[in-house]
Amino acid sequence: MVLVIRISFLSLLLAGVAANSVAQSKKLAPITAVVECTQASAKGQIRQFVFDGNKETYFATEKNASAKDNFTLTFEKPVKVKTLEVLTGKPKGEDALKEANLEISEDGKTFQTVGKFQEGQATRKLDGKTVLAIRIQPTEDLKYPLTIREIVVDSEPAVRHFKYPVEFTIDVSDAPEMKEWTEKVARICERQYTMINEELKSEGFKPARSIRLTMKNDYDGVAYASGSRIVGSVKFFKSHPEDMGAFVHETVHVVQQYRTRGNPGWLVEGIADYIRFFKYEPGKAGRLNAERARYNGSYRTTAAFLNYLSEKYDPLIVQKLNKMLREGEYKEEAFQVLTKKTVQELDEEWRASLKK
């Protein structure tokens, strides 16, 4: 009887530890954020610099700030903030903020002042207060740009820094009525930029920090990317406003930056759709016809093929293929080097798996 009791107690203890570990894991999972300002950024001084973990970079507005301007950092969901610190001004102290309030909000709509800036800095203990957004609000017109060096948040869960800072600017001069929708798309792409770059990282590569998103009336396609510019069709997205993932696909093309010619289009597009349908919005790729599907079918079809290889052979295979494409070293034999099987053999194996 004693043995049974001890075993039962041990089982309960282990179960409790496991449950607590799972809860702790979920509890500690970092979340993302977006940054917005009522005024445009000065050239090269993008908004995400305020939350990149680097106190040597800084955001600055294009013009002198007024009492009507503000800067807001909004979290993906509310967090419990222990301490909050905001550093303003350039690294050497110029344009440090004095006439401004530090504000927080639980719902992203109603803000309350929790402190004022002194010598360009504001620090507050919030003791676990629920916060969805942090706002920096000048209290009078300034004779210098609004310049913010870093926002430091100690919270539960943690908020993920912008490891790859980027700023999307939009041009909706062809369709002003699409401004709110396009801004939402831009924030989605900014939020996914770290994920995209982590999936496609290679040594020495530095992604674009400024991307322009333009909506055009005279473009009859869906969307395309050229350099650090993305163009979307007004006509298409007015009819398909839910298809925001198309711009994540185009953002992947901006990150790919394949400078050499000769890269197979099916693989270039397949990688972009792999990131979209298996990392950004998994489960939305749809089913494939095993009889018609081919590894070089491009877009969703190739994306599904790459996902199969990622799950069965190498979770980093897309990253490795991307590096080869980026450096102009890709050849069809790459698949055999990475998996010990030819791409044709992998194709047959993958299509057979689709029938199960």
From TrEMBL:
<dbReference type="InterPro" id="IPR000421">
    <property type="entry name" value="FA58C"/>
</dbReference>
<protein>
    <submittedName>
        <fullName>Discoidin domain-containing protein</fullName>
    </submittedName>
</protein>
<dbReference type="Pfam" id="PF04450">
    <property type="entry name" value="BSP"/>
</dbReference>
<keyword id="KW-0732">Signal</keyword>
<dbReference type="InterPro" id="IPR007541">
    <property type="entry name" value="Uncharacterised_BSP"/>
</dbReference>
<feature type="signal peptide">
    <location>
        <begin position="1"/>
        <end position="23"/>
    </location>
</feature>
<feature type="domain" description="F5/8 type C">
    <location>
        <begin position="42"/>
        <end position="140"/>
    </location>
</feature>
<dbReference type="InterPro" id="IPR008979">
    <property type="entry name" value="Galactose-bd-like_sf"/>
</dbReference>
<dbReference type="Pfam" id="PF00754">
    <property type="entry name" value="F5_F8_type_C"/>
</dbReference>
